[in-house]
């Protein structure tokens, strides 16, 4: 009798326990199902609401280095503008987001290619926030040099900028560029001067298969040349820019300036 009563008691307890578990489990299961369905629904809505990236919206964010005007596919002024427009078209064709297209373009042609300086600053801040802690970091001093009066009689003049890797990985420089064919530049590292670069498509033919690696803490020199004979009829004040392209994930297009007053 006791054994039978014990069996019934165990059965009743097991039933009650199962009932309690079911009561508590069903709402949780229902809630989880609702969350899954909501996420799926929102995902479908978000996909439906994503605006496709249009190349025509990207062109005017950047200017042509030749004429300084925003890129315009209906008004292509030179080969450099065509190259940049074609590159934007290729990025958009890969179904990238607008941010991905903008970052890829900026990394190829530099942060200084933005028309809107606010957009440039926004992009640079994003790069800084997402850059690895251990990275190469380029530093140039000074960032501006004044040649003073430059005469045709005196001919080509030069100056040196101090270039240092203040990061924790090798700084690899593989390209230089300038804002005018009258200005060219090279890197001097450990007493050896590399090839001279000038404005793309103008003046000196810039190499395409050169690079130099500067270890952390070490320095090099940026040597800048200005040739007044390139503009024989020019007289007056001018600013020329030099761009150094490297693997620094934030400052991958470092800019310095030289200024001068060209006289007879």
List keywords for this structure.
5 helices, Immunoglobulin-like, 28% strand, alpha+beta, 264 residues, six-stranded antiparallel beta sheet, 2 domains, five-stranded mixed beta sheet
Q: Can you walk through the features of this model?
A:
It is a single chain. With 264 residues, the chain is of the alpha+beta class. It has 2 domains: 55-130, no CATH class; 138-263, Sandwich (Immunoglobulin-like). The protein is built from 5 helices and 11 strands. It has helices at residues 2-49, 55-58, 79-92, 98-109, 117-130; strands spanning 138-141, 144-151, 157-165, 171-178, 183-189, 192-193, 197-198, 212-214, 219-226, 236-246, 253-263. The strands form 2 sheets. Strands 1, 3, 5, 6, 7 and 9 form a 6-stranded antiparallel β-sheet that branches. Strands 2-11-10-4-8 form a 5-stranded mixed β-sheet, with no helix packed on it. A hairpin with a 6-residue loop joins β10 and β11. α3 runs antiparallel to α4 (98-109). The longest helix is centred in the N-terminal third of the chain and has 48 residues, at 2-49. The N and C termini lie far apart (126 Å).
> Number of folding domains?
2
The name of the CATH architecture of the largest domain is: Sandwich
Q: Estimate what percentage of residues fall within beta strands.
A: 25-35%
CATH superfamily of the largest domain: Immunoglobulins
Secondary structure: helix percent: 25-40%
Biggest sheet architecture: 6 strands, antiparallel
| Topology as a string of helices (H) and strands (E) | HHHHHEEEEEEEEEEE
Principal-axes geometry comes out as globular
End-to-end distance, in Å?
Answer: 126 Å
| The first-level CATH class name of the largest domain | Mainly Beta
Query: Which stretches of 5+ consecutive residues score pLDDT under 50?
Result: 44-49
Quote the CATH topology of the largest domain: Immunoglobulin-like
Secondary-structure-derived class: alpha+beta
Mean pLDDT across the residues is 84
| Distinct helical segment count | 5
């Amino acid at each position: 009798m006791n054994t039978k009563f014990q069996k019934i008691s165990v059965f009743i307890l097991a039933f009650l326990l199962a009932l309690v578990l079911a009561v508590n489990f069903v709402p949780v299961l229902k809630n989880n199902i609702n969350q899954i369905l909501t996420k799926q629904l929102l995902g479908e809505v978000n996909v439906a609401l994503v605006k496709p990236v249009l190349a025509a919206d990207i062109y005017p964010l950047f200017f042509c280095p030749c004429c300084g005007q925003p890129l315009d596919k209906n008004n292509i002024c030179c080969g450099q503008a065509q190259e940049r427009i074609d590159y934007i078209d290729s990025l958009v064709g890969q179904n990238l987001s607008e941010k991905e297209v903008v970052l890829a373009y900026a990394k190829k042609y530099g942060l200084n290619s933005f028309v809107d300086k606010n957009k440039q600053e926004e992009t640079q801040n994003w790069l800084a926030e997402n850059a690895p802690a251990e990275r190469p970091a380029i530093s140039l001093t000074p960032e501006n040099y004044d040649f003073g009066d430059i005469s045709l009689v005196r001919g080509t003049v030069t100056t040196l900028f101090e270039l240092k890797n203040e990061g924790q990985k090798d700084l690899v420089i593989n390209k230089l560029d300038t804002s005018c064919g009258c200005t060219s530049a090279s890197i001097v590292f450990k007493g050896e001067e590399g090839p001279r670069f000038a404005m793309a498509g103008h003046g000196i033919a810039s190499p395409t298969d050169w690079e130099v690696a500067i270890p952390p803490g070490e320095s090099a020199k940026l040597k800048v040349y200005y040739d007044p004979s390139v503009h024989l009829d020019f007289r007056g004040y001018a600013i020329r820019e030099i761009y150094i392209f490297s693997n620094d994930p934030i400052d991958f297009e470092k800019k310095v300036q030289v200024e001068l007053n060209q006289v007879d």
